[in-house]
C-alpha cells in the first residue's frame, strides 16, 4: 500500500501543486487549507507524513506540531517556513518537526526531502524490528519495549514517542557517552548542524518526568563539554 501524506497549507495553488507531484510518486494525498481542519484530519486519520505550513489561519503550524507530539503515535512532520523565520524553524525542530524547507523552494527539493524522510523512517523501523522486544529494569525504572511504556516505582510515566525512543536508546547503552549530534543521528535519524539544542530540550523534558530532582539527575547524566550518558545502575550496585 502506498504511503499517505497530509498537506496542511493555506495556499490552495501550492497545496494542489504538491498534491500533483506527490501523487506522481504514488503517494496518497489529503489536503487541509487551514490549521483547524488540518489538526482535525491529522488526529482522526493515520498518515505516514505531514507537510505542515508554519503560517496558517485558525491554528499555526507550531501549535499543530506541538499537539501532535503529545500523542503516543509518531508521524514525521516536514515543516514549510519562510526565509525570515529562523526562530520559528528552531522552535519547530525543538517541538518535534523532522525537517523543514524554506520558502520559496523548488518542487524537486521538497520531493527529495520527502523521500529522504521516508528512507530514514524505514531505516529506523528496520532497526527496531531487528531488536527483540524486552523489558529493561534500571534501578526503580521499568521500560517495556513492546508496550512502549515506562514505570517508576510502579507509577506510569507519560512520555511522547520521541522521548521514549531517546530514553530507550540511553537505557540500551548505559555508561556510553553520546554527543548531541550522535543522538540526533541515532534517535531522530538525521543531523541538523546548529540544532543540537533540540536534544537538550527533549532531555530536559524527560528529566522533568523521570527524575525525582531534575537538577540532580540519577538516570540521564550530563558529561560536561561532551554530551550525555545513562547511568549504569548495575555498576553502581557493585561499586557501592
- At the fourth level of CATH, the homologous superfamily of the largest domain is Response regulator
At the first level of CATH, the class of the largest domain is: Alpha Beta
CATH topology of the largest domain: the name is Rossmann fold
> In percent, how much strand structure appears in the residues?
15-25%
Number of domains: 2
What is the straight-line distance between the termini?
Answer: 54 Å
Count of DSSP strands: 11
Order of helices and strands: EHEHEHEHEHEEEEHHHEEH
Principal-axis shape: elongated
- Class from secondary-structure proportions: alpha/beta
Helix amount: 40-55%
Can you walk me through this structure?
The chain folds into 2 domains: 4-129, 3-Layer(aba) Sandwich (Rossmann fold); 133-239, Orthogonal Bundle (Arc Repressor Mutant, subunit A), CATH 1.10.10.10. It is α/β, with parallel strands linked by helices. It has a 5-stranded parallel β-sheet, sandwiched between helices. The protein has a 4-stranded antiparallel β-sheet with strand order 6-7-8-9, with helices on one face. It has a two-stranded antiparallel ribbon with strand order 10-11. 44% of the residues lie in helices and 20% in strands.
Amino acid at each position: 500500500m502506498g504511503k499517505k501524506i497530509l498537506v496542511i497549507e493555506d495556499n490552495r495553488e501550492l497545496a494542489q501543486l504538491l498534491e500533483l507531484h506527490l501523487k506522481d510518486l504514488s503517494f496518497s494525498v489529503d489536503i487541509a487549507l487551514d490549521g483547524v481542519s488540518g489538526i482535525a484530519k491529522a488526529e482522526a486519520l493515520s498518515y505516514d507524513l505531514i507537510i505542515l505550513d508554519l503560517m496558517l489561519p485558525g491554528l499555526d503550524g507550531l501549535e499543530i506540531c506541538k499537539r501532535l507530539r503529545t500523542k503516543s503515535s509518531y508521524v514525521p512532520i516536514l515543516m514549510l517556513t519562510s526565509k525570515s523565520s529562523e526562530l520559528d524553524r528552531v522552535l519547530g525542530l525543538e517541538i518535534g518537526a523532522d525537517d523543514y524547507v524554506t520558502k520559496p523552494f523548488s518542487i524537486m527539493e521538497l520531493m527529495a526531502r520527502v523521500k529522504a524522510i521516508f528512507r530514514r523512517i524505514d531505516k529506523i523501523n528496520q532497526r527496531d524490528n531487528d531488536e527483540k522486544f524486552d523489558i529493561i529494569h534500571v534501578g526503580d525504572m521499568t521500560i517495556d519495549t513492546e508496550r512502549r511504556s515506562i514505570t517508576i516505582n510502579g507509577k506510569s510515566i507519560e512520555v511522547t514517542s520521541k522521548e521514549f525512543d531517546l530514553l530507550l536508546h540511553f537505557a540500551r547503552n548505559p555508561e556510553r557517552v553520546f554527543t548531541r549530534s550522535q543522538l540526533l543521528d541515532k534517535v531522530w535519524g538525521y543531523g541538523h548542524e546548529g540544532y543540537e539544542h533540540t536534544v537538550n530540550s527533549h532531555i530536559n523534558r524527560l528529566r522533568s518526568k523521570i527524575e525525582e530532582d531534575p537538577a540532580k539527575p540519577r538516570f540521564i547524566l550530563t558529561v560536561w563539554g561532551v554530551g550525555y550518558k545513562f547511568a549504569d545502575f548495575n555498576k553502581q550496585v557493585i561499586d557501592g
